[in-house]
Amino acid sequence: MKLLLLTLTVLLLLTQLTPGSTQRCWNLHGKCRRRCFKKERVYVYCINSKMCCVKPRYQPKGRLWPF
């Protein structure tokens, strides 16, 4: 019984300590964060006033329509 109680306690603590998933943005290629990683760039801002960090390969290249 003690082993079961200990196991449940550890599992409960692990679920609280693991980081939650971040909000996705930019066609699910980016993540809303306060700071972007080195290889990511900010292209748009999220609704929750965080930056949408997107890898450069998923960002649009130049202008679509030349005006």
Automatic annotation (TrEMBL):
> Where found, per UniProt?
Secreted
Keyword Iron found = no
Cite the Beta-defensin domain residue spans from the record: 24-53
Q: Name one GO cellular component term.
A: extracellular region
- For this entry, list what GO says about its biological process: defense response to bacterium; innate immune response
Q: Which UniProt keywords apply?
A: Antibiotic, Antimicrobial, Defensin, Disulfide bond, Secreted, Signal
Top-level taxon: Eukaryota
Record keywords: Zinc-finger included?
no
Recorded hits in Pfam families, A to Z, give:
Defensin_beta_2
Quick one: signal sequence residues?
1-22
General function of this protein: Has antibacterial activity.
Q: Which family does it belong to?
A: Belongs to the beta-defensin family.
The name this protein carries in UniProt is Beta-defensin
The top of its lineage is: Eukaryota, Metazoa, Chordata, Craniata, Vertebrata
Q: Give the gene symbol.
A: DEFB123
